[in-house]
Specification:
The protein is of the alpha+beta class. It folds into 3 domains: 58 residues, no CATH class; 109 residues, Alpha-Beta Plaits, CATH 3.30.70.1730; 44 residues. The protein has 7 helices and 5 strands, in the order ααβαβαβαββαα. It has a 5-stranded antiparallel sheet. A hairpin with a 2-residue loop joins β4 and β5.
Length: 212
């Protein structure tokens, strides 16, 4: 039976391994190894950009944050907490973000992604996305800051994101709107129903007179 051991000259490319690509390169000449590595890196970047374009296209709001000073566990806990509410959180190289932003038709995103940044992706309620993120930052005591956001094609400043996070939830806003609408509708109903009641009274009297 053949041995399962790797040849002595086999080695794992550390850069590719860090991206989840395992390729034993020791069997190839150095120049060929470099070429294969470049091709695999290029393909990996294309895949990342393609996935990011899809995410950007589905997002209703995108928030850029810093992440310096966060421990790996804190990052993982934040990502898991946001994921439970359907919110995405990703760290991607800026150059790939810029490329994906152009392809997704959201070039404004490039204006809020500067330096090391992580992106928060909300796919439904923009207010809820900002609220969940802001509340988690406060409750976990994270040294995390919202650097800016993109709502549709409008750039949001950090203070605007904070204001957005402090808005009432959709349910509260809907109940407030319904209460405000109920009063005018009640008044309109009274205005419209009053002449109708008068008309019915006249009609009933007319019937009684003609039946005599």
């Amino acid at each position: 039976m053949g041995s399962n051991k790797l040849p002595a000259e086999a080695e794992v490319d550390p850069v590719l391994a860090g991206m989840g690509i395992f390729c034993y390169t020791g069997h190839f000449p150095k120049a060929e190894r470099a070429k294969k590595r470049a091709n695999m890196l290029r393909e990996k970047k294309v895949q990342i950009v393609s996935n990011l374009v899809g995410i950007l296209s589905r997002s209703t709001i995108i928030i850029a944050t810093n992440y310096q000073g966060l421990l790996a566990k804190q990052m993982a806990d934040l990502r898991n907490a946001l994921a439970k509410t359907g919110i995405g959180y990703h760290v991607v190289k800026n150059t790939l973000v810029y490329r994906a932003a152009d392809q997704a038709g959201k070039p404004q995103l490039k204006d809020i992604v500067e330096g090391p940044a992580a992106l928060v992706f909300g796919y439904d309620d923009a207010v809820n996305t900002a609220k969940v993120l802001n509340q988690y930052i406060k409750s976990a005591g994270l040294s995390l800051q919202m650097k800016g956001g993109l709502l549709g094609d409008r750039i949001l400043l950090p203070e605007e994101l904070t204001s957005l996070a402090n808005l009432p939830s959709r349910e509260v806003l809907m109940s407030q709107l319904i209460r405000q609408l109920q009063a005018p509708i009640g008044s309109l109903h009274n205005v419209l129903s009053s002449p109708l009641r008068g008309f019915l009274t006249v009609l009933q009297n007319r019937v009684q007179i003609t039946s005599k």
